[in-house]
Design goal:
238 residues, Rossmann fold, two-stranded parallel ribbon, 10 helices, 20% strand
């Protein structure tokens, strides 16, 4: 039984980090010692000559983690591009063994590790190695985060197909509202995903106009089937 979870998205900007942050806070509240990891983060802002990986920093804060940021996030890249493209543009060599060493260290320190990917499963990480390959190699089941907008049925089914082809297990799907738009597609998508997606639908996270630790934790706790994920880790510790 895997002692970790890989959060992927059907696209970039669907709210993977917020969902991951809420999960981390719930795990901590329920007595789990969970590590967090964002192996590669692109689109980092530069401050005083240093790149700030905001997603990785947020996950670290939500977990109250004492792990070094460079272990949580081995590669921070400035350009908002797929990791392989950003690295090439910036002259950075993404070494998979460096990422693996960081992951192994985190798994040795914690009950489990929640890993947030960059973009979707087929976002290239290095060369012809994709985010899906990372989840597969580490034996981590997927939590798929999809946006609440037109087009997500296709995006979600494609993501599931990719996972199936690579034999990566999927814990479930969570739909996240990144805006307060409430059109016909947004109202019908949950039922549509339950109908066509061959994976558990774990809930719909409402739009949160601003981030606070308590608001995100409560949104995940009240609107997502956290027990499905929690049971995975409880079984992994038996």
């Amino acid at each position: 039984m895997a002692k970790g979870l890989f959060i992927t998205g059907t696209d970039t900007g669907v709210g993977k980090t917020w969902v991951g942050a809420g999960l981390i806070a719930l795990f901590k509240e329920r007595g789990f010692d969970m590590g967090v990891m964002k192996p590669v983060e692109s689109g980092c802002r530069r401050e005083n000559g240093c790149l700030i990986p905001e997603d990785a920093t947020l996950l670290k804060e939500m977990a109250s983690s004492e792990d070094e940021l460079e272990i949580i996030n081995p590669y921070a890249l400035e350009h908002a591009l797929a990791p392989a493209l950003a690295a090439e543009r910036e002259g950075v060599e993404i070494r998979l063994e460096v990422i693996k060493r960081a992951y192994d260290l985190l798994t040795s320190r914690h009950d489990g590790v929640i890993v947030e990917g960059a973009g979707g499963l087929l976002a290239p990480l290095a060369g012809d190695y994709f985010m899906a390959d990372l989840a597969k190699e580490w034996g981590l089941p997927l939590l798929i985060v999809t946006g609440a907008k037109l087009g997500i049925i296709n995006h979600t089914l494609l993501t599931l197909y990719c996972a199936q082809q690579r034999e990566i297990p999927v814990i479930g799907i969570v739909m996240n509202h990144t805006t307060d738009l409430k059109g016909l597609a947004e109202s019908l998508n949950p039922a549509a995903l339950k109908r066509w997606a061959k994976a558990p639908f774990l809930g719909t996270i409402p739009f949160l106009p601003s981030f606070t630790k308590e608001a995100v934790k409560t949104a995940v706790e009240m609107n997502m089937n956290f027990e499905t994920i929690e049971s995975l880790f409880r079984r992994s510790r038996e």
